[in-house]
Amino acid sequence: MKRTLRIMVQFKQKALTLAVASGIASFSATAQENAQIEEFVLEPIIIKGEKIERSVDDTLSSVSVATDEEMQLHADESLHDVMMRTPGVFTTEGNETFSIRGIPVDGLGAGSSDAISVYVDEALQSRRAVTLAPTSLWDMEQVEIFRGAQSTTQGRNAMAGAIYLKSKDPTFERGAAVQANIGTYGEQGGSLMVNGGLIDDTLAGRLTFDYQEEDGYIYNEFLRKDANELRNVNTRGKLLLLPTDAVEALLTVQHSKNRQGNQSISKVDGVPQFYEVATNIDAFDKVEQTAITSAIDVRLDENWTLTSITSATQTDYEGLIDFDQSPSPRPDGASLNEEEQVLSQELRAGYDNGEGFRGHFGLYAAKTDRDREDVLDTTVVDFLGEEALLAVYEDGFRFNYNRFGDTELMNTAVFGEINWDFMPRWELIVGLRYDRERNETVDSTSIAPVTTFNGLDPDTDALIDGFMGAADPTVTEATYDAWLPKLGISYELAHNQTLGFVAQRAYRAGGASFNLATQESVEFDPEYTNNYEIAYRGGWMADRLRLTANIFWIDWKDQQVEVLTDPADADSVQVENAGESELKGVETLLAYDVNRLISLYTGIAYNDTEYTDFVTDTQDFTGQDFQGARTWMATAGSTFRFENGLSLNLEAVFHDDATTVYVTESDEASPMYKQVTDELRTDSYLLWNTSATYEVDQFLFTAYVRNIFDEQYMTNNQDESTADAGAPRTAGLAARYNF
């Protein structure tokens, strides 16, 4: 805690120094130009992820927006780069896990559904595609990160927030661009963009390609090779059709293919061995995804618009992990395979009378099919602890533990929202969504020998043979619905000064679990949060000085936890809605454009999380913080633009430490049974980053250095032998040519 406070104080001091230095530079620049820097007008940033397009100043949601210009200035290459500098959002390297307001993408507790939705060009991304592959930002127009509930707008699995990425659409002006980039740790890549009209004023197309590879900064000391190599390919094609003045159709086809290695490092006696791992398996994750999306807008008249969005996504995943994360001579690998298909259709009508009354209502349906096959290659000795088997089988008798799962989801919804300026300066927001879902999962397991029986000890062989076999498939089914109301109001205090309040309900999908003891499928309901948020938007000095602030309180009910229906039977575990939690905090962003050449900004997020009632079959987290939830996060930076085409950015990012693992008492006879007795924590850290762009004629050069002072820090303290580490100092250079 003392180290956290010390670093936070350092951050504030250095941020102040950065601001003062920027101010001096501002005065100097102004003097050099003899105070003749002309007036400039800031273009409003339009939010597109809430179905009603509006400016940031008119949006009460806590949203952070990265525009094309900003991503270019920061030399952003993937979604991870944007998330790293967004207060209130935490991510590990490669986005292997990330959270918004302390809630991880896969939620807390025992449920299997997500708590955060990610969309790229209206196509919902699978969790595998987001967490196990970098989401490329090549030719991306805008990234919107919504902190807080988006269930009324996005539906299932947007309880903690949503991320909306929009790539650039085709235009009728012919153009092209090529880019090559290099960097530390073997980073190299190339990118291409071609755009232009195919039929005058009717059909235009845009094609992009991006390839990236790197050796990674983690080395496997046992295998003597790089541990986290990366190979990533992204291709996108878009066709824009304008058959009439009232109809616009956009077809988007995206394909990505990624392979990456082990993201973890080893610990020796609890001490992290930075950028080193020692495993006997060359772990990897491979994700391949294809998404096809059709978006059609029809303007019925001057007030009404009809929108149809059809999307089909196919995701294939293959992974190999070292189950014990060690160089154990015995087999301990697990191969993971998953296929997922998502087909969705949204039909939405939008209305805007131009006089302060606007809204939308629509229908939504999505079908998800997911097939999973996991194979654990291990030994009877490791699985049962029968060390005596080694006298008969030196390899411990290898076998494969196979688990197969097929899941089918059908989600339908009716939704709508109205924004009404019912009085001068006053706006009313009313929204409602009704979701209904059917969930069916078939699970089966089998145990098959790999080692051949040698016949030396019939009793041992009989013991092993009795362990082999297959279990009958289990079928779990669940059907549930969710009502998700939203009510808000805002008041314009003065010109460019708005205060608002929003209350809304959000949810994370339910499902079913199988109780081995009773041999029954047991449904569990969705989790719900009641979200209350006060928002302020302020602008001064012709909007050159801007402040956004959101204060939130979240009451989380019916959390999905594992409980024992029979305390004496460990097989009686099932998932029930038995947990409660709460969150409260504030998120702010202060930005100041000193003039058209110099900009300053700082953002701070404070988040207080607590399990108010969270008792599982073996643990009691009541009164504890969420695992991985940072209390303080902050970003501060300045941007300098010069008349000769050069731009510079200097930025500091602070993340608080957090508990990642709670150790609880396992002795049932102890009065402390289930209580927290110890914990593993991550590091707090302060990172300094810098980037530069230089534009001359048709060339654009970009350079960056991240983690300038080479800070070593853990982002996920997994256990006594394994951790995830943040990246060391990295640097890169890119050259782009625009035709």
Which SSEs are present, and which pair or pack?
Layout: H1 2-32, E1 46-47, E2 54-55, E3 62-67, H2 68-73, H3 79-84, E4 89-91, E5 98-100, E6 103-104, E7 116-120, E8 123-124, H4 127-131, E9 140-147, H5 151-154, E10 161-167, E11 175-183, E12 188-199, E13 203-214, E14 219-220, E15 225-226, E16 230-244, E17 247-261, E18 264-268, E19 271-272, E20 276-277, E21 284-299, E22 304-322, E23 333-352, E24 357-379, H6 380-384, E25 398-423, E26 426-449, H7 458-467, E27 469-470, E28 474-494, E29 497-508, E30 511-515, E31 520-524, E32 527-540, E33 545-564, E34 573-593, E35 598-613, E36 632-641, E37 646-655, E38 659-664, E39 676-681, E40 685-696, E41 699-706, E42 714-716, E43 722-725, E44 730-738
Parallel strand pairs: 7-10, 14-20
Antiparallel strand pairs: 1-2, 3-9, 4-5, 5-6, 7-8, 9-10, 11-12, 11-44, 12-13, 13-16, 14-15, 16-17, 17-21, 18-19, 18-43, 21-22, 22-23, 23-24, 24-25, 25-26, 26-27, 26-28, 28-29, 29-32, 30-31, 32-33, 33-34, 34-35, 35-36, 36-37, 37-40, 38-39, 40-41, 41-44, 42-43
What report would you give on this structure?
It is a single chain. The chain is mainly beta and 739 residues long. The protein has one domain (2-477, 486-634, 647-738): TonB-dependent receptor, beta-barrel domain (Maltoporin, Chain A). Helix content is 9%, strand content 58%. The radius of gyration is 27 Å and the shape is globular.
Q: Could you give a short account of the major beta sheet?
A: 22 strands, antiparallel, barrel
- General shape: globular
> How many domains would you count in the coordinates?
1
Strand fraction equals over 45%
Kindly provide the radius of gyration, computed on alpha-carbon positions and rounded to a whole number of angstroms. 27 Å
Number of strands: 44
Separation, N- and C-terminal Cα atoms: 54 Å
* Poorly predicted runs: 1-10, 12-38
- Structural class category: mainly beta
CATH superfamily: TonB-dependent receptor, beta-barrel domain
What's the rounded overall pLDDT mean? Answer: 91
CATH topology title? Maltoporin, Chain A
Our count of helices gives: 7
- Mind telling me which CATH architecture this is? Beta Barrel
Residues in helix, % = under 10%
